[in-house]
Design a protein that fits this description.
The chain has 257 residues and is mainly α. The chain has 12 helices and no strands. Helix 2 runs parallel beside helix 7, helix 7 runs antiparallel to helix 10 and helix 10 packs antiparallel against helix 11.
């Protein structure tokens, strides 16, 4: 079943092109940064130019990529259950592997795909930033740039800036995996794209526009203490867990497929 998922994506040219575009969106910010910092002395460290650091003017590419992330993930893989329901292919799979394995594999493959998509796209961006800006940046400015960061995070940012960013890359990928999995969960429950897309996006949007936005968890080298960031992250994990638990309980009580 895992292989069939990959074949379904590879054979769909629109999805394949969409994956390539999503992998490159963070790197397109490098072009914006080149224009933004042309003909001026670059008085910031290279760590502050990575995608999650939000160096781009207006955070344009962060908004394009991160704010609409659930819709991208649903289109690429998360709404597969809706497609299976519509084409009746689901019942063929259920007769072969059973309902429990069908749901489990749907959720796992969506999580892994969403996690890797984010991780690879951020890694490509980091690589291009190094290639383009490494000769123009100087780490002597880094201490001044994160002067507001205190506590454990501040110490980690100062002593291990690259490791810190890679940790944030992992956290961003984990959040991407969870929001993709949540979309897949809702897809197996509602089986109708208009409900799945609307509910998933609204849940994500609430976390974005809330005072303690999930975007803070995705941005390194900021002054927010670890306690606040952990609270935001755990709140998100809790909501994902409740959605998954609710879906499991609902599916167990559902009489007909």
């Amino acid at each position: 079943m895992y292989i069939s998922h990959m074949k379904r994506i590879i054979k769909n040219k629109v999805k394949l092109i969409s994956i390539i575009i999503l992998l490159l969106i963070p790197t397109l910010e490098v072009v914006q940064l080149l224009y933004q910092f042309q003909d001026i002395e670059l008085t910031r460290s290279i760590y502050k130019l990575f995608f999650l650091s939000g160096a781009g003017r207006g955070h344009l590419f962060q908004i394009i990529y991160l704010w609409i992330l659930p819709l991208y993930l649903l289109f690429l893989i998360g709404d597969d259950s809706c497609y299976d329901e519509k084409t009746k292919y689901k019942y063929t799979l259920l007769s072969r592997i059973g309902k429990k394995k069908y749901i489990k594999e749907k959720w796992i493959i969506t999580f892994c795909f969403s996690f890797l998509l984010m991780l690879i796209s951020l890694f490509i961006n980091m690589l291009f930033v190094y290639i383009v800006f490494h000769s123009r940046c100087n780490d002597i400015y880094f201490k001044e740039e994160i002067v507001g960061a205190t506590g454990i995070l501040g110490i980690m940012f100062l002593n291990h800036p690259l490791i810190s960013y890679m940790l944030y890359m992992f956290i961003a990928s984990l959040i991407s995996g969870l929001i993709g999995m949540m979309g897949s969960v809702l897809s197996t429950v509602f089986r109708d794209k208009k409900y799945v897309y609307s509910i998933t996006f609204m849940i994500w949007l609430v976390f974005i526009v809330y005072d303690e936005s999930i975007m803070l968890v995705l941005q390194p080298y900021i002054e927010y203490p670890l306690e606040i960031l952990m609270t935001i992250f755990l709140r998100f994990i809790f909501v994902c867990f409740m959605v998954i638990l609710g879906a499991i309980l609902y599916e167990k009580k559902r009489v007909c497929e």
